[in-house]
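Quick check before the chapter quiz. The format below is the same one you will see on the exam, so make sure you can read both the input and the output lines.
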Amino acid sequence: MSRIGKLPIDVPKGVTVTVSQDNTVSVKGPKGALSQKVNKDIKVEQEGGQLLVTRPSDSKPHRSMHGLYRTLVNNMVVGVTDGFQKVLVMEGVGYRAAVAGSKLTLNVGYSHPVEFDAPKDIAFETPAANRIIVRWIDKQAVGAIAADIREVRKPEPYLGKGIRYENERIRRKEGKAGKK
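Here is the expected output.
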């Protein structure tokens, strides 16, 4: 039995979960609504204040999907109650970010500023000129947008300049060895 898949998902008050006939799980909460199509072999059942994800057999495809769909449904429940965020830190002389409306503008050493339009419902924040916070209820979308922002100027190993995640550790290289 999958260790992750067998864990029940607690449904907090104010969150409604519905499972349709075509095995689509819809979750509505105070921050919004999300839905996910689940494989027809995996069953999602609601018992009391918990959701249980079960599989029909111990075959390899069923075992691999069991924990995956349990995690996806759990992420939806957490997303509509608390939401998700990724924090990016910019290091480098003159590197800064600014938010104007739904547009994020990055100055990261290129001859032009790089602009990102926020997709629907995603929020950008810049509490400091070198910090970017990406927030939304969908964990996958938050991670994808944060990865796109990081891709603009990846952190480099010699000076450490670039855009990195908040707790990301960059392995630094020594550079050229000088003459003695």
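If your answer matched, good. The helical segments are 60-81, 139-152.
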